[in-house]
């Protein structure tokens, strides 16, 4: 019983430490990589969105002609960029095993969990989306100047691991359906530096300060609202 008590006390202490770190990760700011003028009529303005579920965030880019040209490799890999309902390009970064093997929680395996807890290769998931409804739960709008938006897109593009021809390398046979693909990505994944910390880094590249550490969607979103209220006010 004494050993059990010590184990429970140790577990409780660990939980308290993690909760304290998570709280500090929200309230302590992490500066943007560079400053951009606020979005407005003088500098141009582009709306992008963050889509969050309980464990993951995606960045929704507008499917403008310019973006479709820059992501033209998606058509090469079988995605219908001429679809009449296409309005957004949805991008997320994550661990290869967990991301590619777990389209639903019912598909979760111990291998995917173990690789996420330790260290895994990373992938980028790119999918085609329709029009955005701002009433959708878990959706946050960010208003960026044209320069900030260009920096965000540049960060996303630099996250792809290119093949011999210089274009992103698709993972053959890895997709959830007809409107998405997985690509090799730069960087390694684990639970402490995972998908949401990548999203936070992308936003800092676009001139938005975040919380110091954003391991989960709530910590990322709360940190943005605290440290970048102008961009998240609409």
How would you describe the overall organization of this protein?
InterPro entries: CHP02117. By secondary structure, the protein is α+β, with helices and mostly antiparallel strands. It has a domain at 39-190. 37% of the residues lie in helices and 22% in strands. It is built from eight helices and eight strands, in the order H-E-E-E-H-H-E-H-H-E-E-H-E-H-E-H. The protein has helices spanning 2-27, 65-70, 73-76, 96-101, 110-117, 146-159, 195-205, 217-227; strands at 29-30, 46-52, 57-62, 88-95, 120-129, 139-144, 180-189, 210-211. Strands 6-2-3-4-5-7 form a six-stranded antiparallel β-sheet. A hairpin with a 4-residue loop joins strand 2 and strand 3 (57-62). Helix 6 (146-159) packs across helix 7. The longest helix has 26 residues, at 2-27. The chain is globular, with a radius of gyration of 19 Å. The N and C termini lie far apart (55 Å).
What is this structure's SSE topology?
Blueprint lengths: L1 H26 L1 E2 L15 E7 L4 E6 L2 H6 L2 H4 L11 E8 H6 L8 H8 L2 E10 L9 E6 L1 H14 L20 E10 L5 H11 L4 E2 L5 H11 L7
Antiparallel strand pairs: 1-8, 2-3, 2-6, 3-4, 4-5, 5-7
Helix pairs in contact: 1-8, 6-7
Distance between the termini: 55 Å
Give the overall shape. globular
Strand order of the largest sheet: 6-2-3-4-5-7
Number of distinct beta strands: 8
Helix % is 25-40%
Q: What is the CA-based Rg, rounded?
A: 19 Å
Structural class: alpha+beta
The number of helical segments is: 8
What's the overall average pLDDT, rounded? 87
Give the strand content.
15-25%
Low-confidence stretches: none
Q: What is the makeup of the main sheet?
A: 6 strands, antiparallel
């Amino acid at each position: 019983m004494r050993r059990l008590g010590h184990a429970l006390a140790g577990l409780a202490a660990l939980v308290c430490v993690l909760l304290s770190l998570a709280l500090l990760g929200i309230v302590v700011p992490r500066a943007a990589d560079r400053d951009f003028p606020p979005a407005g009529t003088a500098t141009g303005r582009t709306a992008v969105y963050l889509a969050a579920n309980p464990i993951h965030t995606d960045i929704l880019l507008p499917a403008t002609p310019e973006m479709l040209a820059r992501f033209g490799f998606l058509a090469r890999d079988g995605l219908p960029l001429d679809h009449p309902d296409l309005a957004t390009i949805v991008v997320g970064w994550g661990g290869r095993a967990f991301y590619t093997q777990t389209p639903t929680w019912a598909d979760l395996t111990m291998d995917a969990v173990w690789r996420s807890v330790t260290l895994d290769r990373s992938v980028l998931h790119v999918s085609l989306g329709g029009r955005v409804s701002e009433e959708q739960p878990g959706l946050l709008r960010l208003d960026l100047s044209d320069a900030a938006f260009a920096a965000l897109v540049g960060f996303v593009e630099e996250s792809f691991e290119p093949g011999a021809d210089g274009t992103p390398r698709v993972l053959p046979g890895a997709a959830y359906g007809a409107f998405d693909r997985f690509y090799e990505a730069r960087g390694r994944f684990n639970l402490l530096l995972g998908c949401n910390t990548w999203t936070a880094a992308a936003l800092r590249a676009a001139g938005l300060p975040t919380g110091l550490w954003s391991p989960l969607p709530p910590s990322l979103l709360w940190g943005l609202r605290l440290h970048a209220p102008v961009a998240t006010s609409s």
